[in-house]
Sequence to fold (319 residues):
Amino acid sequence: MIIVTGATSRTGGVVARRLLAAGETVRVVGRSRDRLQELVDLGAEALVGDPSDPDQMRRAFAGGWAAWVMLQPNYVPDSPDFRGFQDAIIDAVVPAIAEAGLTHVVSLSGTEADLPSGTGPVLGLRRLEQRLDGVEGLNVLHLRAGFFMENLLPLADQIAAGDVISSPYSPAVPLPLVATRDVGEVGAEALLALDFEGKVVRELHGERDLSLEEAVAVIGRVLDRPGLRYVQIPMEQARHEWWASGMSENVVGLLTEVTEGINSRGYHVTQPRDAQTTTPTSLEEFTEEHILPELQTGEASAGAQTGAALRPSSTSRGQ
Fold:
């Protein structure tokens, strides 16, 4: 049996559906039985549980031999201790994996997880990697995903409101924009092949690097909005907007840290762009398939002011 945590997330759902289509026996783990039902209908066994509960996670991994492991996206805006939330999941999941005797795990991590500081919530992914690497005899593949394209979806609100797209991120820093479905596909392929041994890191950089200025230009061309342009707002303005939206001091601090880090040093990668790190979905395709439909169906809010809530890591909305 293969265990898929975060099975109702964008990446976990892709992994689960691909494994089920290949005829694998799959147990899907999530908080909501209703949201897991689609996967149950496809043949999965469901376990509804809190990922931070050690007893429930022992049940989740019992009888398994391989797993997709992730820190479920729970960017609760008013969380008083988001890193503590991440640690609680890690402290429940990793011992359960060791106790169950799994042989292979693919973990969803993030680019910059090798850095010891200055990355905000990505430090939780760094700790997940370290804890999994400490499980004796476990073969682990850490997929370090770049900036999820799904983190651009809030731009639909700004596009509906006018021609200025804004956020606190530098307009010039190239970002490895990657679609969550591509990350899920790579994870599923790895779990089907089980061709990794020891502790392995693979970065996923997306189809190509684009700065936010370039990305907005691409989106404008696809939407036939030639006047669409990107403007960087001051960090302090972004912080005030985050607070006004209901985010806690803790979450605002994490977002500020990672934003300032990227703006000052660029987006840090450790592997070259090649056939292993490049994934197929382009921003043009993503805009056609996801941003355009939001605008056409009127789901975007015309009252939006800025894109200050863009989140540049795989602990975000994109998962």
